[in-house]
Structure formats: structure tokens, C-alpha cells
Amino acid sequence: MSDVTIYHNPRCSTSRAVLALIRETGTEPTIVKYLEDPPSREELAALIRDSGLAPRQALRRREKLYKELGLDDPGLTEEAALDAMVANPVLIERPFVRAASGSRLARPAETVRELL
């Protein structure tokens, strides 16, 4: 098992770029296709927290569902943001990467180098 895990969406160009950057180091990461195998609420909360973010910062704002669910409401709580991502994993910004050195939301893709 690798000490690097990427929460990956193969249709996302940034996610593919991050995966390529990880592999360039000679590391084969554990790949979690989070749309098919979403993290638990506790796992997602820890990943976001360990990345130095609040749940609202981890919401994927470009998804149509973001506006449909009213997640752009300034009064939205962090708990409600987390609940929305658990119920709708497509709303999780991507890609998150966890390594022995920490966790990051690798946007832009080069951010992953901080972990490797």
C-alpha cells in the first residue's frame, strides 16, 4: 500500500495532472475514485481539516448542484457544507492528496509537490 493517496476523478484534468506529477516521482499512489467510493463524513472532515481548510472551502463551486442546493448562501454553516458533500460527493473539490507529510487540496496541480 502506498503512503500517498489521491482522491481522484479521472474526468478532471487537474486530477489527472496531479496523478501524473505523483507518478513522476516514482510513487504509485492509492487511488480513491471518490465519486464511486466516497469518503465517510468523518474521513472527509479529517481530510479537509488536515488540509488546513474549512468545509465551505472544499466545496466545488463550479458544479450546477452547488447553486441548486443554495450552497452559495453566505449563512451556510460549515456543518451544512460538509453534509452536502457527504450526500453529493460531486460537490467535493478535487483532487485531495494525503501523504505521510500531510494533506492538501492540490489546486493548482503543482501544490502536490509540497507533499512529495
Automatic annotation (TrEMBL):
InterPro entries: Arsenate_reductase (IPR006659), Arsenate_reductase-like (IPR006660), Thioredoxin-like_sf (IPR036249). Keywords: Oxidoreductase. One of its GO terms (biological process) is response to arsenic-containing substance. Belongs to the ArsC family. It is an enzyme of class 1 (oxidoreductase). It holds the Pfam family ArsC. NCBIfam families: arsC. This is arsenate reductase (glutathione/glutaredoxin). Its EC number is 1.20.4.1. GO terms for molecular function: arsenate reductase (glutaredoxin) activity. It comes from the Bacteria. Transmembrane segments: none annotated.
